[in-house]
Amino acid sequence: MGQLRRDPIVGRWVIVETDLPFLPENFEKEEHHWSGASCPFCYGNEDKTPPEIEAIRDPKTKPNTPGWEVRVVSNKFPALQIEGDIERRGVGIYDMSNGIGAHEVIIQSPYHHKEIPDLLDNEVVNIISMYCRRAVDLKKDKRFRYILVFKNYGPSAGASLEHPHTQLIALPMVPKNPAEEIEGAQEYFEFRERCIFCDILRQEIQEKIRIIVENEYFIAFCPFASRFTFEVRIIPKVHNSFYWAMSQAELVDLARILKDILLRLRLVLSDPAYNFIIHTSGLHNDESLAYYHWHIEIMPKLARVAGFESGTGFYIVWTPPELAARYLREVEIEEGGK
Quick check: 313 pLDDT over 70? Predict the structure, then answer.
């Protein structure tokens, strides 16, 4: 018999298969097929993208030329556009506004075939520091209420270009998923006067069975009520509501643990497609928000969401988080991380 588990933050129920759990080899391996067309993100093809917004580059080089390490451009096919006014309005019982926002692409490195696990630690630090720099810049725009950083790896996860990149979208409202987290965390805080994420960290550290790896500033674990099989959450040990408030030491530790976890997923699950997202507090909230704790959610694409999940909001997790964490924790990683 499977288990029903409740997420203590948002109240979502999931079904965890415990009697006949799937092993890593039971999941179908996804072949990453790409178009093979000329890559606009590659080094030397800077004229094939929209103009550069910001970059980490050799100071002797000019924008939109080679010499960069991390490069940010507008999405060529943006979901939202930065120009214009929001103009919120009602049409009968329906609410709508203009599609105002920012949609940027963070080209992670000049290397076409090097994902985060293949890069040096300082190269991953550059990527994460760019996430922070773009958020600090965009939050100055008073139209924006939320900034979402997300990565799609593999076609089934929504990636349309092979060259490693991350996307960032600034929105004029707090979207539903993080809004539910923020609301659930606030309710918990009002009742217990503690951050629920900090309490989860304390319990995971005490029980240890779902922790994969940790360092001085971060813990990576499989959530008790995971939505997706082999889902991983990375949470800072130091309470903070916004990822761009990290210290340099935290940046370095986050780069190491993110690189480590993505490598473990690659080795255990034969390079699965995945999404990762960074959840932070809404921009209108105070920087020292006591009840919300920013974090990264990594979600491998191992099974399709079907009618039951869509109709009920329940998720079926085919490998218990405790077992998934054990596989990820015990996988052998060669010295040097490759």
Answer: yes
